[in-house]
User: Fold these one by one.
Assistant:
Number 1:
Amino acid sequence: MWAPVTALCLKHTQPITSRGGARTSGTFLYVAWGSNQNPGDRTRRLDRRRLLGLAAVVGSSGLLAGCVVSDPAISGGPGTPPQIPIPTPALDGALTAYGLELALAGQLGALLALPGLPAGQRSRLQLVQAGHQRHAIAMAGPDPTNRSTTQPTPAPSGGDTTLPGLGSDPARALTMLTQQEGGAARFYRRCALASLGPTALLWGSLSAAAQQAGAAIAQTSPVTTSPARAPAPLPTVSDTEAAQQLLAQLHAVVWGYRRSMSALPRTGAAFARAASSLAQRMGLRDQITALLSQRGASVPAAKPAYRMPADPNTEAHVANALMTMEQALLPYAGQWLGSAATTQVTPALTALSDSGLAAVGWGAPPSTWPGWPD
């Protein structure tokens, strides 16, 4: 931070580990996009009501193509050849994400093949496509939270996802792809809400990245990117320490928004967008302040003033300053999500999503892993 503060349904039988550590087996109905993996860290049984509700969410974006129920038969006995182990990611839901990210990367490739796209928009589409490809590689690894950049050999088997074709009309294709990115973001959000620790941040980052992608692909301004950095581990802090560090940054961001908005016409769209983001940051600031007070922890106080990353004397300078602030806030929101207790996962995930969308809205390129320290 800037100074001075720094759809496929399938019947599947698998071993289940209970909270007490006992291992049993059971047959459950899972919902996933072409996967036999259960999203999230906690295996959940889907009753009819939850299944219908989930189908309504993803079905609206064209991502739930059908439902197939099968009863796998296993035959054995003398002379039965041993099965060859097929490598699959260890994290529940990772195989689904692997297939989905590959499918989205393929959609971007199809869109990039269409003629008539502005150069700036084409550069953004290429950036989003590369992000999906990196996500797929990470989700194929034995521990996706390490966010490996090396494709495992052989590649995981299964998880194939087929998305509706985008067609040949660029405008319609962009609309469809935006909807598909939104469907992915919602799927990943559900996985994050069922997780804790680095796994929650992994899913939350994927959700925020899909949201950023959906917002960025329609933008036509040129984008400047920095070379990708090696994945950095999540810092080890308590949820209280993470909340305190995020609050210190929020004080600076709130001050920066107020300072920047003074240079914007009060009737313009930029002012309205800034006012909306400011209200979100102030609400989060007050929420974390109350949380720390309830715990009896120290509450970082706001400083009288902060140094802006850019002098906000024009609308372009305001956009650059607010973009920089929101980008700098993302790792603190991610750190809170990665250390949050169960009751704080939802506000932490919302904080990450809000800052990610705001950053892209002010002109930032979409991040591959929003919320991680790299």
Number 2:
Amino acid sequence: MQASVSTLSAVQAGDGQQLFSLLHSEEPNTQEQAVQGLGVLVKTKPDSFQAIGAKAVASALCRQLSASTQDVQIAAASTITALAREGPDNQIAIANAGALPLLQQQMATQNSRIQTTAVTALGHLAADSQPIAQWLGGTGTAHHLQLLLQSPETELQLAAIDAIDSIARSDLQVRAMIGNQQTLTVLIHLLQSSSIHTQHAAASALANIALVSRDEVNISMVRCGAAAALVQKLDPKHESVCHQATRALCNLSGDNDECDEAISRHSSY
């Protein structure tokens, strides 16, 4: 109980130093509360970490990724996600602290909650970060993300779609790697999901994979049936899905005659 009070007081006071010290507790409950408290402060009072430094916080969170309890591991990955959202300096600090292989290991567990938070963290670390996207591609992590697109767990599936979306925007070489027929077919299939969130995520990923015109990825996307599937999503009743489908079709079109012909053909139905 005392740990909860200490953690709550530190969050309310914006005391990152106190939360940082609680990370070194031998009590798993205290560690979990401290990690969660840091996550709250990252989102609400990011300046409170200036005295500690992103490097020290990242190193401490990486140690928690290897904690003995699953709840602490999940809390650490979630806080890494929050820290990564604050900008490229934090992303690099987290990567340099050794988070990437640890999160990769968590992806391979059989616990879907751990997998989901790990995949979410990797996606945010790769966002607009070419070096991290290249690491994910070079270590086989991107391929593992492709396999998770077919997970029966909705949250894990969404996290995998978003991570692939981030990678596609960050590095053209890795984009070409993940833009294969298998991945494209799965994403196109997910456009037919009963979940609007899944439809939106799949359309956004296709839009970002199709960012470069006149290349084999876009042609492959059209040949997999993307044009027909995306045209079907141009329904103003679901504005967010319609917007992403429009982006995807515009990116597919560009100056690519084969893509243009397919879009025109399916739009006329």
